[in-house]
Design goal:
- This protein has 334 residues and is an alpha/beta fold.
- The chain contains 11 helices and 15 strands.
- It has helices at 3-6, 49-61, 79-82, 85-92, 100-110, 115-125, 131-142, 217-228, 247-271, 276-284, 292-311, and strands at 7-9, 15-20, 27-34, 39-42, 69-73, 96-98, 154-156, 162-165, 168-174, 183-187, 192-196, 235-238, 274-275, 316-320, 323-327.
- It is globular and about 60 Å long.
- Bound molecules: zinc ion (ZN) (2 copies).
- One zinc ion is lined by residues 28, 78, 80-81, 197, 239-240.
């Protein structure tokens, strides 16, 4: 990536760095925030050689040293945001801030047991995922370990409290659904919102069922959008794509997207009962079989919508030969 394309100067001396990702998302936004003494880095990115190189070049181009990084702040625990935190901490000695819940999840995933992979397999297989595709997903998941290592030492921050960033006070807002434990940061004075992946422009944040966590993540996500839509925002700083201004409109679009998706699923299930994997393929296409990373997200998101429908009595399921099959009545007929 060329430097001018990679770094965007924002106002107040903030900078957005596009840290490359080896997936269809292409990059994650990292923000460099000037402090009295040094800089805070928000969401340093996934650990890859390209990302390490980019950070070396970025620091160099501004005449900075690793020790100029005085704090690392994480919006949430997903590897594309959290992955480089430990690496950056090792070099800078900076504290890493995230919520306790996010940290617990990171430890569950990358803490050296295969409990999470086992629970995910159990969930996906009982929802129709073929064995060979599940193996691909588990391998893909294990492949993330070097991209999130070393693990950082974490200092906890809490939703509802305030947090200083760039000489301004920010309200920490609980932002569940995409990642439980995730935070948005709001500065009421300048009306900026750092929204992580909770609200993204042009792409819909993934909402996944995570085994052992909330049964209806979609309900939490939609409620969170409702709460976020009440904030006056002039500049939203997202985890992916570009900073944007129409924050409230975007929360409404995301709500509408999920309403359409739910009604589309009910129609498909009214036509013929399906297990979650079949429904996932009918929605996202069979080409996902070649992309275990995207297949994992698509399957977990399909389950999030199905659980939401079932908990609201809008779909029902029966287990046949160990696999859950869903059915529904036509959305339009209710
Ligand atoms: Zn995320
Ligand atoms: Zn992300």
């Amino acid at each position: 990536m060329n430097q001018s394309d990679t770094i965007t100067e924002l106002s107040e001396g903030w900078r957005r760095v596009k840290v490359p990702l080896p997936f269809s998302l292409k990059w994650v936004n990292s923000y460099i925030v000037p402090e009295n003494m040094g800089y805070t880095i928000i969401d340093p990115g996934l650990r890859t050689e390209e990302a390490e190189k980019l950070w070396d070049e970025t620091l160099q181009s501004y005449g900075l040293d690793w020790s100029d990084i005085v704090r690392i702040v994480l919006t949430h625990q997903h590897p594309d945001h959290y992955g480089l935190a430990g690496y950056m901490q090792e070099r800078s000695g900076a504290p890493v801030y995230m919520t306790e819940r996010s940290h617990r999840y990171a430890e569950r995933l990358w803490g050296g047991t295969d409990e999470y992979a086992g629970a995910l397999s159990g969930l996906f297989l009982s929802n129709g995922m073929p064995d060979e595709l599940m193996n691909g997903i588990v391998q893909n998941l294990a492949g993330f370990l070097p991209r999130v290592s070393p693990q950082p030492e974490v200092t906890y921050i809490k939703a509802g409290s305030s947090f200083p960033l760039g000489g301004r006070e920010w309200l920490l807002i609980d932002a569940p659904g995409h990642a439980f434990g995730g935070l948005c940061f709001y500065d009421a004075a300048k009306r900026w919102m750092i929204c992580g992946d909770q609200v993204l422009p042009r792409i819909t944040p993934n909402v996944s069922v995570v085994p052992g966590e909330e049964e209806d993540p979609l309900a939490h996500f939609l409620e969170s959008l409702e709460r976020l839509s009440r904030f006056e925002v002039v500049l939203a700083l997202p985890g992916h794509r570009d900073p944007f201004a129409d924050f409230r409109e975007r929360t409404a679009e995301l709500q509408a997207f999920h309403a359409r998706r739910l009604s589309d699923m009910r129609d498909r299930l009214a036509e013929r009962p399906m297990n979650a994997f079949e429904l996932c393929e009918s929605l996202f296409g069979a080409q996902l079989r070649n992309n275990p990373h995207n297949l994992r997200f698509a399957m977990a998101e399909t389950l999030a919508h199905l659980f939401h429908l079932e908990l609201r009595g809008l779909a029902s399921s029966r287990t046949r030969s160990g696999i859950k099959v869903y059915q529904s009545e036509q959305a339009g007929e209710r």
